[in-house]
């Protein structure tokens, strides 16, 4: 049996004296997509931040290719693309400059498709406009354009379809499906009903496991 790409073992997280999840167990293989579901406040974003190494407020074990994530942190981060609520762009730079800067810092990226990537997120004609002159939604799209440039083995995406029209949503779904078909793996949250069916599993947050019970992805 091959070693899972990512494995979560007995994950526990508490916030403001309220348990968000406990006894959470799942593994992610290459080519799989996991959608995290649950009502607002159930811990979806918290879980994604934990899985991305941005939060240490948890108990349990997270393994990357069979090794504790803290012991292979540099390798893990080089294999990760994280898309969160904040755009993560430099306001003084243009969309094109932001993407070139991102590609220079991260492996598994390519710079030859930057113009096309920006067009795919609806920013054709804005390539050379400083990001401080763009709207909040446009800055989020600059960040979203990274998906078109990244071959990182793991994508962790928090609400990637927000502020995107139907055509844009279809393009992003196709991109996610293509990434998985090429052997990449994806963990995402979304309120959107995904059309993706192949290799898709779901985990629902919002309830607590009974003592001794193990919450599993299905």
UniProtKB/TrEMBL annotation:
GO MF, one example: transmembrane transporter activity
Designated name of the protein: Cytochrome c biogenesis heme-transporting ATPase CcmA
Keyword Chaperone in annotation: no
Domain ABC transporter: 6-217
Pfam families associated with the record: ABC_tran
GO BP field: cytochrome complex assembly
Keywords, sorted A to Z: ATP-binding, Cytochrome c-type biogenesis, Membrane, Nucleotide-binding, Translocase, Transport
